UniProtKB/TrEMBL annotation:
The chain crosses the membrane at residues 31-52, 72-94, 106-126, 146-170. Keywords: Membrane, Transmembrane, Transmembrane helix. It comes from Kitasatospora acidiphila. This is DUF998 domain-containing protein. InterPro entries: DUF998.
Length: 230
């Protein structure tokens, strides 16, 4: 009599290294990842449109955060709140997608901290300065930092440090799966983000570019995880 040996491969249960089968297929996971992926383009798009429409705003002198000031500041406050909520939702999707793989514990936690920093930034507004809103002296914002402006800046610093740390954690995840391109990008992007922040004292556009790069790379990573097992 010939005995038939049934293997997991016969049922399509072979798993790739570093992930659990069907993790991204859980109900709602792709929707949560899509929410996290939408956060960056939404925030940056809203900021660019407002920056070109608001009187006195200059991308070479003013940070997007300052759009929270003035009569139309509620638009940017709403953008902060919505972006934070979407990123936190994306962190939940990230936890589900990684599902016990390398980085599954800390990457979602760090991204959640990043999302929370947007909620704090919405409550504690940036200071006026550099000519915005209209009528504000042209002195740099940091010249007379208020307590709420200080909280705003601190929340942004903590949030982006958490995001950079999350990218380094995700680099380990991609490396464990043999996705070397994604792993190297997750190592290099945080360096570029931090370099932009370091240069912000003399060039506001460098800060904007660094912050925007971090948001867009989060979009790229969440999109990659959402489409990986389709």
């Amino acid at each position: 009599m010939t005995q038939t040996i049934t293997t997991p491969a016969a049922f399509g249960a072979v798993r790739r290294p570093g992930t659990r089968a069907g993790a991204v297929r859980r109900p709602g996971t792709r929707a949560l990842l899509a929410a996290g992926g939408a956060a960056g383009p939404l925030f940056l798009g809203a900021g660019v449109v407002q920056g070109f429409c608001r009187d006195g705003f200059d991308f070479t002198r003013n940070a997007i955060s300052q759009l929270s000031l003035g009569d139309l500041g509620w638009i940017q406050v709403t953008s902060f709140l919505l972006t934070g909520a979407l990123i936190i939702a994306g962190a939940t999707g990230l936890r589900r997608a990684l599902d016990g793989a390398v980085g599954s514990r800390w990457a979602p936690r760090l991204v959640r901290v990043f999302g929370g920093s947007f909620l704090v930034a919405a409550v504690f507004k940036a200071d006026p300065g550099a000519g915005f809103p209209v009528g504000t002296p042209n002195a740099p914002t940091a010249a007379s930092l208020s307590w709420h402006g200080g909280v705003h800046m601190l929340s942004g610093m903590v949030g982006y440090l958490a995001l950079c740390a999350a990218f380094f954690v995700l680099a380990r995840h991609f490396a464990a799966r043999g996705e070397r391109g994604w792993a190297w990008a997750c190592r290099l992007v945080p360096v570029a983000v931090l370099a932009g922040f370091a240069a912000s004292a003399s060039a506001v556009p460098a800060f904007t570019a660094g912050a925007g790069l971090g948001l867009l790379w989060l979009t790229a990573v969440t999109t990659r995880l959402a489409t990986r097992n389709q």
